[in-house]
Design brief:
about 575 residues; 29 helices; single chain; about 0% strand
Length: about 575
């Protein structure tokens, strides 16, 4: 079979794999449509949708510097403006991007390691359960994965077509990724250095290679790459400067996020600055309020970020041993099989989704990472052409470890590891077929060590899953389904009884359903577990008041007002209970 026929056959197989990818994602979308967090998004999803609504209503420029990466809300706003889509439409658009990503990964892997590796990599991404899950979430992970696949495709395409247009597209795709996932900014110098110093064919196939590029052409490609970045990032930086007086090509949340991931109480997962304030509505305001309270003066967006960065560094210096242990834990977390949940959990969606349930044990990060490590070991002799990909992987791992770990934050490693994992799979099968067993000893050792490191249990997964189940219960309550929400909160507490927020949310649902007696027990239990949950006092007071316990109601209203003087409802509650507020409560 001549080469054109081989190429045509490859593309037909790749297209079939992309269609299968879409079908798997579509089945998942249809089966999970009734999950409460789909119908009633909360957390970041709610924040992105609200932001997109404001943009679609004409507030496209905004009034503040960007605190969260902006591209995804603008993407949602475009969908809404053009098609008027709801959650189903957004999810369909995103799984379409996910299916195109399968094509891009296939082409990229083929360019790097050949046709068979291209098809294996595409098939892995098509059936990779976390990708199916993230592609259907109203989260920026889907858009970020697509843009990363575009970036890798154009970067690899430069080895075949060293054209200025391709270099610009490489820069544009990376810039768009940066305004979707800020830590991608660390990648900026890597392709630039590769273009100037090491742009060569990454394969041994003459038909896919290129001759050495003249120095002048390399510099033209480098300028094209930088121009592509500038086209996207300069307007973002200018926009931030016009609203906040400070230039930034991305956002101003690095400091707070670094503190969350590295303070003395950090454990590697996300913990908000204020307990119970895990939403975008609070994240920015809490970071500003607490920084200004401690510094005693108004702060700009950059100054707030620097405050939290300095505070984190100060706490690191207080206990270097704790920080080194924390970095070791986060390093293991970033390669772990477990998808650390944010608001929504892979494990919870698996209860509704046949693709996740059927494929979840066959392919996960605890399998992908060892295969990727074997791929690096087997291709290390070609490091002169592949070092750019190794460096991209190492930089992304470092960028994630530097902050805190969520499954969707480390998901960019998947498109990076897939070509190497596919190359390893093809090479292992080939050597086994040729009975080259001795040559597999080193690969087996690398795979075994990597598999052990990637599949240890690090955190209490029951507690993390219980927190996610609690979040689904919150969404159910917001939808008006109190019965379902109470059931979910009880399930969360059965799995992990020491979650203060779960007791609080169960108490709220019980109170709304008329069961104030049991609600008060859970309010009190929540305060015993975490007295920093200040919102408990006001809601417990309302339950006491409805039961006619005026003394307890007054005491809890008073405490709520002391902690939150702006809460006028607490002040009114004190007056309803028949007592005047004490002088101390008016301070």
């Amino acid at each position: 079979m001549d080469r054109p026929q081989v190429i045509a056959r490859f593309h037909w197989w790749l297209l079939l794999i992309a269609v299968i990818a879409f079908v798997l994602r579509l089945v998942h979308v249809l089966q999970t449509g009734q999950v409460p967090t789909v119908d009633q998004p909360i957390g970041d999803s709610r924040g992105y949708l609200d932001w997109a609504f404001q943009i679609s209503q004409g507030n496209w420029y905004g009034s503040e510097t960007f605190y969260q990466a902006p591209l995804y809300p603008y993407f949602l706003a475009i969908l809404k403006s053009c098609f008027g889509v709801a959650a189903l439409g957004i999810r369909l658009a995103q799984i379409t991007l996910g299916s195109v990503s399968v094509l891009l990964v296939g082409w990229t892997s083929r360019r790097l390691f050949g046709d068979r590796a291209g098809l294996v990599a595409a098939a892995m991404l098509a059936a990779y359960p976390p990708s199916i899950f993230y592609d259907a979430l109203i989260q920026k992970a889907a858009l970020a994965s697509f843009l990363l696949c575009c970036f890798l495709f154009f970067l690899t395409e430069l080895t075949k077509r060293p054209w200025i247009t391709i270099a610009m597209l490489c820069g544009i795709s990376l810039a768009l990724l940066i305004v979707t996932r800020e830590n991608a900014l660390l990648w900026f110098p890597i392709p630039l250095a590769w273009i100037v110093l090491g742009l060569k064919s990454p394969t041994d196939r003459p038909e896919s290679g290129v001759a050495d590029i003249e120095r002048s052409q390399r510099w033209k490609l480098a300028l094209g790459y930088v121009a592509g970045l500038t086209i996207v990032l300069l307007p973002v930086a200018a926009r931030n400067a016009s609203l906040g007086g400070e230039w930034s090509p991305t956002t101003f949340q690095a400091g707070p996020n670094f503190y969350i991931g590295n303070n003395l109480g950090a454990n590697g997962v996300y913990v908000p600055l204020v307990p119970g304030h895990e939403t975008p509505f609070y994240e920015r305001s809490d970071a500003i309020r607490l920084a200004e309270q401690e510094s005693g003066e108004p702060l700009s967006a950059r100054q707030v970020s620097r405050f939290w960065m300095s505070k984190a560094i100060g706490e690191i210096r207080q206990d270097y041993l704790h920080w080194f242990q924390l970095m070791a834990i986060k390093s293991l977390m970033v390669i772990n099989h477990y998808e650390v949940p944010d608001v929504e959990s892979f494990a919870f969606y698996r209860e509704f989704s046949v693709p996740l349930l059927a494929l979840g044990k066959l392919l996960h990060f605890g399998i992908l990472f060892p295969l990727g490590a074997i791929g690096i070991a087997m291709t290390i002799d070609r490091w002169r052409s592949l070092w750019v990909y190794y460096l991209l992987i190492a930089t992304m791992i470092a960028a994630v470890v530097a902050f805190f770990i969520l499954g969707r934050y480390r998901h960019p490693l998947v498109p990076l590891l897939l070509p190497l994992a596919a190359a390893a799979t093809v090479e292992i099968i080939t050597r086994l077929h040729n009975r080259q067993y001795r040559s597999l000893v080193a690969a087996a050792l690398v795979g075994a060590v990597s598999a052990v490191l990637a599949n240890v249990t690090i955190h209490d997964e029951n507690r993390l899953e219980a927190s996610s189940r609690m979040n689904v219960g919150i969404a159910a309550a917001k939808s008006g389904n109190l019965g379902q929400s109470i059931q979910l909160f009880r399930q969360a507490l059965e799995a992990s009884p020491e979650i203060a927020e779960a007791h609080f949310n169960l108490a709220r649902a019980l109170s709304l359903s008329g069961n104030d007696v049991e609600a008060i027990r859970h309010y009190q239990h929540a305060l015993q577990l975490d007295e920093r949950l200040t919102e408990v006092y006001y809601h417990a007071a309302t339950s006491f008041e409805r039961l006619g316990h005026r003394e307890d109601a007054f005491r809890f209203y008073q405490r709520a007002y002391e902690l939150m003087p702006a809460n006028q409802n607490a002040l009114k509650g004190m007056r309803r209970t028949g007592k005047d507020p004490s002088p101390s409560s008016n301070q």
